[in-house]
Amino acid sequence: MITKRIIPCLDVRGGRVVKGVNFEGLRDMADPVDMARMYNAAGADELVFYDITASYEGRALFTDILKRVAAEIFIPLTVGGGINSLADFDRVLKCGADKVSVNSGALRDPALIPAAAARYGSQCVVLSADVKRVGGQFRVFAKGGREDTGRDALEWIAWCAGHGAGEVCLNSIDTDGVRGGFDLELLDAAAARVDVPIIASGGAGKKEDFLELFRHKGIDAGLAAGIFHQKLLGIRELKEYLAKNGVEMRL
Amino acid sequence: MIAVIDYGVGNLFSLRSSLRQLGLDAAVTAEPDAIRAADRVILPGVGAFGDAMAKLRATGLAPVLRAAAAEKPLLGICLGMQLLFDKSYEFGEHEGLGLVPGQVCPLAPDLADPALKVPQIGWNALHLLKDDPLFRYIREGEYVYYVHSYYAKGCAASTLAVSDYSIPVTGVVRAGRVYGTQFHPEKSGDTGLRILKAFAEL
Known about the structure:
The structure holds 2 protein chains of 2 kinds.
Chain A: E1 5-13, E2 16-21, E3 24-30, H1 32-42, E4 47-51, H2 56-72, E5 77-80, H3 86-94, E6 99-102, H4 104-108, H5 112-120, E7 125-134, E8 137-142, E9 147-152, H6 153-162, E10 167-172, H7 184-193, E11 198-201, H8 207-214, E12 221-224, H9 226-229, H10 235-244
Parallel strand pairs in A: 1-4, 1-12, 4-5, 5-6, 6-7, 7-10, 10-11, 11-12
Antiparallel strand pairs in A: 1-2, 2-3, 7-8, 8-9
Helix pairs in contact in A: 1-2
Chain B: E1 2-5, H1 13-21, E2 26-29, H2 32-37, E3 40-43, H3 49-58, H4 61-71, E4 74-77, H5 79-82, E5 85-88, E6 94-95, E7 100-106, E8 120-125, E9 127-128, E10 143-148, E11 150-153, E12 159-164, E13 168-175, E14 178-181, H6 189-200
Parallel strand pairs in B: 1-2, 1-3, 3-4, 4-14, 5-7
Antiparallel strand pairs in B: 5-6, 7-11, 8-10, 9-12, 12-13, 13-14
């Protein structure tokens, strides 16, 4: 049967992997190509690269890293960050990305989702949403979690899934970086609304958090950054633990 | 030399990189002469069946591929595998290359477990039904990466391997020297590389 997926996420800025806590306080971690190699060897099911640079030079550095990773690592690569147009899709797909994650770009121009799905197929389009509770409602935030769009998160992901997003990656700002577990309330609500694969992000602190996550119906993958990068939890150790506890894993 | 067919469908970066990693000589091409000269052919593809078939016809590649299939090993990957069949029911009804008997049908209505998602996206274990040189370097139950909403059926005689998605989903087919994999070997890690290596040695 199909496995649940464990996905390390590499936020890249200035050619280095960085990871913040609650989207702030970015810390320099390591070389992205070395890290991708290490995660591939450890059994990561997929890799996500977010380009968090804004400059032209940073962007060129990022696509160069992407090419180097894609030339030697043969698992699915998802790329996000700065995806605002079909030209951006084209740019990263040509450098070896398999899927493209869209966040703020789709909030600014929702037509990007159906347009990208029509051109590249919905399997290529990942809708990524940063979500935070505001007055009892799940709201979508833009600009790396800094700006409340006022949009209802569940409505937004349902619209995107209905218009060509092949997967949804939900990052809970409330649980991000806190390492107290995934935002299961948000994820359950999302799983009830969309029938495309859901990638859970934000809050993983220990292996038990992943086991609890996958006991919730409709969650297909768990994504984390800091706990993997800081070697608080090894991918292989995590996958063996989950397999032992009855979660289908690729080992 | 392996001719990787370039007909404007899908992303060839990973496939090219995989073949390079294996030290194989490959050319991404749409030239009939290059395809005729190659000692094997890979037909990749991502997207919609109807569009892809229209492109193969418009570029004149369909008859070139049929001729190649009679002479040398040919591997269709994902949509490239689906194109090998007689027919597809993806958004209407479309004729395929007719190199492998069977049809390509939507996955969703056939699933025994309706809670499973379509497309099937992710890693699934490959169950080997028949012994084949393509499986020379892999074992029963290794995981491969799938992304698809349609699958091949009515092809039991040609099916070499399946994956379980509440129903057996056709994973690998073979008719003569024509092979197809529904999954992406170029995205299936080391397992996928070993399948490509075996194909290059057929």
